[in-house]
Amino acid sequence: MTAHPDFLWADPEPKRGYEVVVIGAGGHGLATAYYLARNHGISDVAVLERGWLAGGNMARNTTIIRSNYLWDASAAIYEHSLKLWEGLSDELDYDILFSQRGVLNLAHSLPDVRESVRRVNANRLNGIDAEWLTPAEVKKLVPIINTSPELRYPVLGATFQPRAGIAKHDHVAWAYARAANRLGVHLIQNCEVTGFRREGSRVTGVETSRGTIEAGRVALCAAGHTSVLAQELGFRLPLASHPLQALVSELLEQVLDTVVMSNAIHVYVSQAHKGELVMGAGIDAYNGYGQRGSFHVIESQLAAAVELFPIFARAHVLRTWAGIVDVSPDASPVLGLTPVENVFVNCGWGTGGFKATPGAGWVYADTIAHARPHPLAAPFTLDRFTTGALVDEHGAAAVAH
Amino acid sequence: MLSVPCPWCGPRDETEFRYGGQAHVAYPPDPAALSDAEWAGYLFLRDNPKGWFAERWFHAAGCRRWCNTVRHTVTYEFGAPS
Ligand SMILES: Cc1cc2nc3c(=O)[nH]c(=O)nc-3n(C[C@H](O)[C@H](O)[C@H](O)COP(=O)(O)OP(=O)(O)OC[C@H]3O[C@@H](n4cnc5c(N)ncnc54)[C@H](O)[C@@H]3O)c2cc1C
Ligand SMILES: [Zn+2]
User: Where are any strands of DSSP class E within A232-387?
Assistant: First the structure.
């Protein structure tokens, strides 16, 4: 076994300018930079990060990866991503601990059941692996789950996507960072973008806490903070930034081999490679940038978890934290061009963008390279809000927040 | 948990409220005159500031009235209502 290298990427001083400046070194920014270099030969790229590399939502999410979305356009972009996940450790020559342990989405009421079966059928029509499981089949897969009909919200079945799972988010970020760095991309930390330089209708550079950096094209990849940057650029986005909390327990023996999600009673849980239970729930109701949320959200998520998994009552919570997610009116991303001709946007992934990391980076790099939306990104452009496209899609996204 | 200052009941736990988002978004006086972009703006675009924010809360488990507050979206402190 080779020793782990001290440094996975260089720490260069910013150059005077770059062909493409990517704002935000989360998973999406890093993947975008990597695919710009790998797929399009554009390696004169800087990724500017106000904090430390991948310290935003990338380091805070519960790492669930799936592609069982109802709406065709969503299924297509998330399935493109899932296919990339399946080859990513090899592609980046780095073990990202991608574990296809399957994801269950529980149904607790008759409408839940009908919605779930419909989604299974829609997934299959899109070539995505999906099954409907009875309560007995759920119990077989997850022996510790409580399938008693006595529960206030009994488990009436579940959708199951066997190819879905989890990956180690830090490894994913480091793997993309190392691979992008090897292709010549500059990763610049502690470099906050505070404003923009313009000439006529174009942006010519960014103002940062480390000075002015010229830019041929600017790609926003700032997750919860995109509205702040858009305001500097003079346009508005249909986004609300909310805290989303997660928590982990102490390390436990292996008790849970699949990912279990419930939108109705709102908890999702998996067991990390090391053994912690990793749990999340819904966003806090209010707009917030404080990277902390309200306690009652944690309380109700734990109540739901303990009802479903009575043995969790013995586990201790070790840490809770929040990330700031950008929620759009249809729980779907916004990807493409902006009113400023050489500025591009990738945002609105809300509570579910980790699973999109490879796919979003892929289609966004293509969008930036050709200055037009990639076909998989075309349904997610900013103008869908004015063209009369279907936008009430929280259910189709299989998210309840 | 936030302590939301209801003007009628005083400060009460956030769990008693429903959140209403940005305050002072008026219904367009002449909706038929709006362009598609303006209509989309009314429906979908809200301010999302990192700082002070005028917003609405519905005291669902209390007086059942709406109120406006001003809250800082980083510190979460409430300021003087507008
Ligand atoms: C608690 C929690 C649980 C989640 N669970 C899941 C899950 O299970 N599955 C899933 O698919 N998704 C999940 N998500 C959502 C997912 O994490 C995000 O959708 C996704 O990470 C967003 O893309 P990103 O990785 O680029 O964002 P981030 O990692 O947040 O990257 C944005 C970066 O931009 C930087 N930045 C912001 N402003 C500036 C500026 N002005 N200048 C320079 N840099 C700037 C930030 O510091 C940050 O590093 C979860 C999120 C949270 C918070
Ligand atoms: Zn009241």
Answer: 240-251, 259-262, 267-271, 276-283, 317-327, 334-337, 343-347
pTM of the prediction? 0.96
**Considering the domain boundaries, does residue A78 fall inside one?**
no
The range of the structural domain enclosing residue A45 comes to 15-61+169-239+329-387
pLDDT at A5: 64
Does the structural domain B17-24+51-82 have CATH classification 3.30.360.10?
no
A212 and A266 belong to one structural domain: no
d(Cα A82, Cα A167) in Å, to the nearest integer?
A: 11
Q: Which residues 16-55 of B have a C-beta within 8 angstroms of A?
A: 18-19, 21, 36-37, 39-41, 43-50, 53, 55
Per-residue pLDDT reduced to its tens digit, A185-207: 999 999 999 999 999 989 999 99
**Model ipTM over 0.90:** yes
Q: Considering the domain boundaries, does residue A40 fall inside one?
A: yes
Residue A401 has pLDDT above 90, yes or no: no
Q: Do B48 and A388 touch (CB under 8 A)?
A: no
- Per the structure, the count of domains in chain A is 2
- Of residues A95, A356, A143, A156, the one with CA closest to residue A258: A143
Same domain, A245 and A235: no
Distance CA B47, CA B60 (A): 24
